Amino acid sequence: QYKFRDLTIEELKDVNKTYPNFTFSMNTYTFKDGSQKDLLNFSGTVPVKYGSFYNIPIHLWILDSHPFAPPICFLKPTVNMAISVGKHVDAHGRIYLPYLQNWSHPKSTVIGLIKEMIAKFEEELPLYSLSSSDAARQSELLSYIAKITEGETDMKSKSKIGGGKTEGCFNKITVVGAGDLGIACVLAVAAKGTADKVVLLDLSEGAAKGGTMDFEIFALPNVEISKDFSASADSKVVVLTVNSLGNAQTYLDVIQSNVDLFRGIIPAISHYSQNTVLLVASHPVEVMTYVSWKLSAFPKSRVIGVGANLDTERFQYILTNLLKAQVLAKDAWIIGEQGEDKVPSWTSCNVVANQTEAMAARNSREKVANRAMEVLKGKGQRSWSVGLSVADLTDSILKDKRKVHSVSTLAKGCCSINSEVFLSLPCILGTNGVIEMVKLEEDPLVQEKLQSSAGSINDLQQQLKL
Hints:
This protein is an alpha/beta fold. The protein has three domains: 5-129, Ubiquitin Conjugating Enzyme (Roll), CATH 3.10.110; 172-302, NAD(P)-binding Rossmann-like Domain (Rossmann fold); 308-463, Lactate dehydrogenase/glycoside hydrolase, family 4, C-terminal (L-2-Hydroxyisocaproate Dehydrogenase, Chain A, domain 2), CATH 3.90.110. It has helices at 5-18, 98-101, 110-123, 132-149, 180-192, 211-217, 251-263, 266-272, 285-296, 309-322, 326-329, 355-377, 383-398, 444-462, and strands spanning 23-30, 36-50, 52-62, 72-75, 81-83, 127-129, 172-176, 197-201, 223-226, 237-240, 277-280, 303-305, 332-336, 342-346, 403-410, 422-430, 433-437. The chain has a six-stranded parallel β-sheet. Strands 1-2-3-4 form a four-stranded antiparallel β-sheet. Strands 15-16-17 form a three-stranded antiparallel β-sheet. A hairpin with a 2-residue loop joins strand 16 and strand 17 (433-437). It is elongated, with a radius of gyration of 25 Å.
């Protein structure tokens, strides 16, 4: 069952040498969505110095995509121990560490994880001793925790909604990243009402704060906040909004920092939602969509970026409502790169009697398009506006609308582009992502600009370490 069996075995041999007290076994683990898998796991104690030395009992589960996905980690307290909920441990004993969030093979190892675990536990001891009377009251809680850590969660207690469908059958969307953009996406998607459940995957270190804390205070129906990748299981769409906030000095360093962040996210997301559509909103969207495609190994149709969807909707609105050019608006698109290098284009043109009329019609259209682009330049892309665009795209995917959107898709083969780059192009979207790319009107100037964008993006991608 393990995709990288030899790598996994070699690493666990190293763990056994370093921590000979650990015991290894194969048991069934039950994920939050009720799915089950037989997984390698081990338990034992790690030495932690907190004034005196303490042996802290832990239990780690190794996913079948290891070493490209991090282990699932728990404390395993005895009857006379209680969990001290803190920055790195929740009430059920689940362990959260920066090392897990930033997991990236081959840099990340189980030995390195345990070393960080020890270091964090020495800053904040995760367990404390109970008196004999407290220990008796603790036994019931320990029984529940044991069910979680041993993969025996009672699924019979889960309620059924919508004619007996279980949770995994619903239209579920996961938003990865709890920054302003992630929160805006959750609010917009929830307001749209298309999704039966929206999961906000908060990968920030420590307890919920800021917007996520407010989500917990003012609970929204069908919205769940989690730090656990397994909460994303069986999502129909996963929206990626995370951006690294490292101390990078150059533009290339900033992008590489984002790539490193995605290496710890995409394999885990792909593991839990193997049939999902990845919708990338992280920056720069063209490069990060390419990175997501490479790391997930998904078909190109199921990895798309938000691209110029927002700009296109605005462009068509300006043409229709401000410039009163309704006829032009229905065939008008913003394509190419997000930002200053975006290009207006058309998917068809009116048939005219002769070349002179055709030239006049083209010149008239270009003048209107230039006026619309000037208006468009004054419109920024704030978190809430991108969130609305994301909700628009997820609505088309979940409802299988077959609606045309300008989204970042693999552009190889279009406009004589031969490199593997993602550019925004008009695409028909449905349940499985991109169904078909809509043919653009042939325009040498537009093709030249797209080829230029493709060349600069490809040069940048060649410098990245995937």
